[in-house]
Amino acid sequence: MTRDEIASLLSSVLAELKLQPDISFRIDIPPRKELGDYASNIGILAGRALKTNPIKVAEQIAAKAAEIDSGRNFAKVEFAKPGFVNFFLKPEYLQKNLLSIEKQDHDYGKSGVSNEKVLIEFVSANPTGPLHVGHGRWAVVGDIIARLLKATGNKVETEFYVNNVGAQVEKFEASVLARRQDEQPPEGGYGGSYVSSVKGNTRAEMLACMLEEQRQTLHQAGVDFNNWYEESSLHEKDKLRWAVEKLHDLRVTFEEEGAIWFKSEALGDDKNRVLMRADGRPTYFTADIAYHLDKFERGFDRLINIWGTDHHGYVSRLKAALKVLDLPVENFEIIIGQLVTLYRGDQPIRMSKRTGEMITFKEVIEEIGTDATRFFFAATDVNSHLDFDLELAKKKSNDNPVYYVQYAHARICSILKKTSGEASSTKVDLSTLMHPAERDLMFKLLTWPELVAEAARLRHPHRVTEYGRELATVFHKFYEQCRVLGDPARLKLVNASRITLRNVLELLGINAPEAM
RNA sequence: GCGCCCAUAGCUCAGCUGGAUAGAGCAACAGAUUUCUAAUCUGUGGGUCGCAGGUUCGAGUCCUGCUGGGCGCGCCA
Fold it and tell me: What CATH number is associated with residue A442?
């Protein structure tokens, strides 16, 4: 009985007992083992809805659930204090799941809970300098969210938007040329040391050079985009003018001081915004409207953007524009990624693209490795600011959480190498798997698919790293207490653990080494 | 000044649409290896969940105010 199956069981219990059928009860893993494998607050909520004693209702529900199940999946179903219903799975159920894990192999954890065509856009750094650590964080998070959404049944494309038009790229070109003449960059230009290594004679060549470096860095981080969407292609297709005309037709534009404005203030923004400058050139905002119109035109059901916190002020104006254009804004999510402050010991390192004083994403990868970089950046909620001490990450590299998880996988492979394929035998009596450590491990394995679904739904990669640590812990404890070699049932359990652990690392884009 | 985000153990962070006795890793201390990898495990200490109110059977979680920090508030991108 997975969480979903318990949910539908409880729904039919409510129906049979003729209780309030539409309460949104929760099913959780309770804080202590004595309270079962799963627990629901259903009695509390039903009691409240019916204005009766919640404990009595819980008692009734527990009895009915046990009756319907009639000992197939649950050893017992109990009710408890404020109105909880607690479910205790039979060991046979957990044991049976091991066979299912082996059978599903790489697919264990995947599901079809969602079926949308999703475009996720992230990083989208200006092609005027190397990627900084914040980009790196958003790259890792975006990449893993894409993997999560694929794993739960969606068709997903990843996209990097290239801002290769406008004042910034003009200043970039001027800065490169100035550096070659040993001159100062223009006002607001780029002064980092990387400027001298930019190759190319034309602006396009210079941008291509910078872009290629970004692409390589991302590849090194295990992040490979499906699409690189160049802003210039929007201009070539005259999409900006087309977008402005659409807004004009909707009567949400006006002219003032020679510029064309969008009446965004009336649509939830702080103020009105310029679409076309007095000199006739469009703003970045106009390009962004055209770009997102184009995204929806390409037939995606859902758009997800990861934007740096420095762009959060653009959320309301872009949503206002898309809404007035009658696009489904409810299917347009913007995840705001907070910054990373790098430290060397107590010393914070400022991230500024315009000064030479920055540590790039590439340097971080090279210093602490791809696996550790991905794990650390995935391991915290992207909505929270992250303080990241390079010295600490490097110094402690031997008991980094990522190595802890990888080590569990390597240990398993080492055991399995010592066997002659007994783990793959189909006729094994699993009923001997009764030890508490075995049970804990089996239960942890059982919850992997629902964890993936939950992490995908919340767009929370850090749930996956968390699970990886927990699974490794449960495995290591099992390993300490239970000798595996010579026990066919335990070999089965270990093999299922190997598959699950590998799938966790696969989802995170981290290597699953067979030896360490 | 206005807007968004954050504040949980010495440090870095989890805590799911409000649920049962607030967790993990690191750091500190004490132990475990003739046995499948000790990159492991066991145990100990460590908390007014920034502060003050409110909502209710129940608040780290929701609301209001305050304090402290990050980021925005361009006819830059």
Answer: 1.10.730.10
ipTM of model over 0.90: yes
Q: CB of residue A411 closer than 7 A to nucleic acid strand B?
A: yes
Q: Which nucleotides of B are covered by protein (CB under 7 A)?
A: 2-7, 11-17, 19-27, 35-42, 57, 69-77
| A402 CA to B45 C1' distance (Å) | 27
Q: Under a CB-based contact definition with an 8 Å cutoff, are residues A56 and A78 in contact?
A: no
A127-171 pLDDT tens trace: 999 999 999 999 999 999 999 999 999 999 999 999 999 989 999
Q: Are residues A231 and A377 in the same domain?
A: yes
Q: Residue A414: how many CB atoms within 10 A of its CB?
A: 12
Instruction: State which residues form the domain around A379.
Output: 122-236+338-394
Of chain A residues 457-516, which have a beta carbon within 7 Å of strand B? 458, 460, 462-463, 466, 469, 472-473, 476-477, 479-480, 482-485, 514-516
A165 touches strand B (CB under 7 A): yes
Q: What is the CATH number of the domain that holds A57?
A: 3.30.1360.70
Number of structural domains in chain A: 3
Give yes or no for CB of A345 within 7 Å of strand B: no
Closest Cα to residue A129, out of A185, A168, A166? A168
Model's pTM, two decimal places? 0.95
Whether residue A280 lies inside any domain: the answer is no
**What is the C-alpha to C-alpha distance for residues A142 and A337, in angstroms, rounded to an integer?**
10
The answer to the question of residue A486 being in a domain is yes
The answer to whether residue A456 is domain-embedded is yes
Q: Provide the CA A36 to C1' B43 distance, Å, integer.
A: 26
* pLDDT tens readout for residues A263-311: 998 887 888 999 999 999 999 999 999 999 999 999 999 999 999 999 9
CA distance A513 to A403: 10
Cβ-based contacts (< 7 Å) between A 214-253 and strand B: 231
In this structure, the answer to whether residues A410 and A500 fall within a common structural domain is yes
Residues A136 and A170 in one domain: yes
The structure tokens listed for A116 are: 């949308």
What's the Cα-to-Cα distance from A329 to each of A153, A332, A381, A384, rounded to whole Å?
Answer: 22, 5, 24, 25
